[in-house]
Design goal:
The chain has nine helices and no strands. With about 180 residues, the chain is an all-alpha fold.
């Protein structure tokens, strides 16, 4: 029996949020939540997100890892393969879908840069390499704030993925299960 769209989206949010609270690492926890919701497993994609937490390498200076994790899954499912590397149009679907994710994310959080999101949610940003600031981040509820961002990003990305799967299903008359079998 096929899961309902709402239950898939709920699972993406809850899994990602719970992973962030327990394990941290916003890019990986977003990927894990999306994978759980869609029934996908790929340790290479998951592992490749290891250094992307807190705006790249815990610096806060890059894009939010939750956003990047969602974009990674979109690229994994709809991106260009090495055999098509010279075809500059091949990744267009992943570009368009990732732009949708970015637009939704920025509409919700006002930015995509980790430090800016921290300031918006907690009133300031934190240097997580500094033990005193790491402690302050915990006191400010960073885990709770970030876990909601992760859950939201996982939900946004999953919805975009489901929409594209439906579009491709209508176009090719294939089933959504093809993605989990294919990958």
């Amino acid at each position: 029996m096929e899961k309902s769209r709402d239950s898939i989206l709920k699972k993406a949010f809850e899994s990602a949020q719970n992973y962030e609270k327990k394990c941290t690492g916003c890019a990986q926890t977003t990927i894990a939540g999306i994978f759980d919701a869609l029934g996908i497993e790929n340790d290479d994609v998951f592992r490749s997100a290891s250094g992307l937490a807190d705006g790249l390498g815990l610096t806060g200076d890059g894009a939010c890892g939750a956003l990047v994790g969602g974009a990674m899954v979109i690229g994994y499912l709809f991106g260009r393969e090495k055999k098509d590397f010279s075809d500059v149009m091949k990744p267009m679907t992943s570009y368009i879908l990732t732009k949708k994710l970015l637009d939704q994310f920025v509409t919700k959080y006002g930015a995509c840069r980790c430090y800016d999101i921290q300031k918006s949610l907690m009133g300031r940003s934190f240097n997580l390499y500094n033990p005193a600031e790491l402690k302050q981040a915990t006191e400010y509820g960073m885990i709770d704030h970030c876990s909601k961002v992760v859950g939201t990003s996982a939900t946004f990305a999953t919805e975009i993925i489901l929409d594209e799967m439906d579009r491709q299903k209508d176009k090719k008359n294939s089933s959504p299960e093809d993605f989990s079998k294919k990958r």
